[in-house]
Amino acid sequence: MTSSFFPPQRTLMGPGPSDVSPRVLGAVSRPTIGHLDPLFVQLMDEIKGLLQYAFQTENELTIPVSAPGSAGMEACFVNLVSPGDTVIVCQNGVFGGRMKENVERCGGIAVMVEDAWGEPVSVDKTRAAFAEHPEATLLAFVHAETSTGVKSDAAALCALAKENNALSIVDTVTSLAGIELKVDAWGADAVYSGTQKCLSCIPGISPVTFSPAAVERIQNREHKVQSWFLDMQLVMGYWGANTKRAYHHTAPVNDLYALHESLVMLQEEGLENAHARHQRNHEALVAGLEAMGLSMAVAAEHRLPQLNAVNIPEGVDDAAVRTALLQDFNLEIGAGLGALAGKTWRIGLMGYASSPRNVVTCLTALEAVLS
Ligand code: PLP
């Protein structure tokens, strides 16, 4: 007989998932109701409004995709890229590489703007790419590169797309609720995120928002969207306003209770207060790490407060340290990804996990393991 699974109580300070608030975990266990129940439809409307607040947008098409961040990414690409389209893709870490893959799988041509891992996307290089490729119809970039802990200038990049009559696709999986993100003020067109980072919700849902210009492009497509599940025109039959809320797929009812609760918590705290909390705890962590003789991998002006990349000191066994933290302190921190594997640790301070308590827990445990 296989027995029930009871996970230990870890402290999640890696690149995500982050610690889920007990309020959110409580919400998941509420009674399941039908996904077309009038009360559930009311909850869906509230989630849309709360997501508009989180994204700082009035976009009508603002919904949670019933699948993880990667599905939100695909939803943006499959709906906006048609075969033969040229898309400028900025890559300064792992996730820009996935964008390229998405463009090519949609039959588009990806023009890459590459920057070193640990550096932000260069606005100048992106401008030069537009000059060389005036036919580009889209610009895609990652606002907060989780693989490196770097923030890029999303406002400037979205403005650059507009100047060149292109739409922007912006990855905000790690930025939403952790740092400033102003979809309407910046003029971002297709924006996707995840629930498992600074929203401190359970993993597996991807909030997305599409501007009126993006919706117009979707409605005027000549080719059918290659994915049935992620075709926004079909999804809108369930999530859209002024529709009968017809069955499209069975919504993850309890997961959406969780998302609603996490968004209610964000609204209670206020976006600006949430950003200030992330910044405060980040500064405390950095001060503590530097006092221990460790150094940060990213220049101060480009650091993400919610994802701290730390250089692994010479001669220290990366995996042994992370294993000791997990086994002896129930504390998870992240390994370096891709080009930074073995060179950095990634310490998350995301959402509910961004607390003075976690800063102290992490510094104390790391000091004990390293000494
Ligand atoms: N984009 C970024 C920047 C991410 O950090 C992640 C996940 O960590 C994703 C996309 C993919 O999200 P998911 O793992 O939820 O599919």
TrEMBL record:
What GO terms in the biological process aspect are recorded for it? glycine biosynthetic process, by transamination of glyoxylate
Q: What residues bear N6-(pyridoxal phosphate)lysine in this entry?
A: 197
GO molecular function term, any single one: alanine-glyoxylate transaminase activity
Q: Which Pfam families match?
A: Aminotran_5
Keyword Transferase recorded: yes
Q: Which domain of life is it from?
A: Bacteria
Q: Which InterPro entries match?
A: Aminotrans_V_dom, PyrdxlP-dep_Trfase, PyrdxlP-dep_Trfase_major, PyrdxlP-dep_Trfase_small, SP_NH2Trfase/AEP_transaminase
| Cofactor list | pyridoxal 5'-phosphate
Keywords noted in UniProt = Aminotransferase, Pyridoxal phosphate, Transferase
Specify where the region named Disordered lies, as residue ranges: 1-20
The name on file for this protein is Alanine--glyoxylate aminotransferase family protein
Organism name: Halioglobus maricola
